[in-house]
Amino acid sequence: MTTQAPSREPSREPRQDRSRATRRRLLEAAVDCLASVGWAGTTVAVVAERAGVSRGAAQHHFRTREELVTAAVEYGSAVRIAQMRERLDAPSDRRPSTLEVVRLLGEMYTSPLFRAALQLWVAASSDEQLRAQVLPLEARVGREAHRLTVEALGADESIPGVRETVQATLDLVRGLGLAALLTDDSARRARLLAEWAKTLDKALDRPEK
Amino acid sequence: MTTQAPSREPSREPRQDRSRATRRRLLEAAVDCLASVGWAGTTVAVVAERAGVSRGAAQHHFRTREELVTAAVEYGSAVRIAQMRERLDAPSDRRPSTLEVVRLLGEMYTSPLFRAALQLWVAASSDEQLRAQVLPLEARVGREAHRLTVEALGADESIPGVRETVQATLDLVRGLGLAALLTDDSARRARLLAEWAKTLDKALDRPEK
């Protein structure tokens, strides 16, 4: 957008930066809030306080809890997938082992982000309007997580059964995320993922490392 | 409890029966209610109305929503596991195929009962008092589902890795239950479980049927 008052230009960029930073603080606080106090306790006002943002400023960015929470899970997922990609790509001369890949996925699906997303999915399951907002987000995040896993495992989906095995890996870690909701399930999860990595190597016909 | 008025004896049994029937109606209505309208909409009053029971009678059985919902998920799980056991045991001269077992588990974890349990787990994740009530229930249901699966598959858990593979099966169907929360995921689930049955047969060293 252009403006007729070029003298205001110098201050515009910083103001946009500040607005973006405020928005990001709200999104991060919303993920934390959902993961720790749940859907009912996560209102725009509570998140604003947690983020150190005035209620007015928060409401300028997000009018409703639904808007804020959906944007927060979308933002958190994008950040998490980018981080995963970075960790899997470096060092670029070595493909990560199957065990490293499934461990990273296990971490992703037991993070506060997963707990926050779970709150949103469950709330959407009995709220038609929210469900309509959440469905495209769920589909997009699902697709990206699938693509990331295929690439990380170097899986060849043209081989019959491989696509289903990759999907099973993601459904498995989702189930593990649910199992970690109420108790510290990390010891069992580590044993299970180690065994799963072996199964996966056999199913993908990949030499064990 | 004995009574000094033996003449009242004949009517006592039917009254106890009626009380048990009322209780059961409340528990069944609570599972349906949780699965369809979620935690926030499931109050003792709403469940009583759905069950066709007076509010007073409902409150005689369950003082709080937490008490009612925990008892409902416990009751529903016991019924479901008993039904599963019946279906797996008959006909007793033939062991069910791996595919039949994983399909039954897939059904169990996409039923209204799973959706109801999910509401309870998620509510408990941000409510310390409720979590204390839910933890023993979650552990008990988890143990029973595990035992049922081991028996149905005829899995030998003394072989290294078999226990983890059985557990992975349950975590997988739990993940599938979550994936079915917002959309009809049944076609993908069927393909995935068919492939999983093959993987499981290999891992358990069981001839494919």
Automatic annotation (TrEMBL), chains A, B:
Composition bias, Basic and acidic residues: 9-20
Keywords: DNA-binding
Chain segments carrying region Disordered: 1-21
Keyword Electron transport listed: no
HTH tetR-type domain residues: 20-80
Keyword DNA-binding included in the entry's annotation: yes
Residue ranges the UniProt entry marks as DNA-binding: 43-62
Pfam families: TetR_N
Database matches in InterPro entries: Homeodomain-like_sf, HTH-type_TetR-like_transc_reg, HTH_TetR
The protein, known as: TetR/AcrR family transcriptional regulator
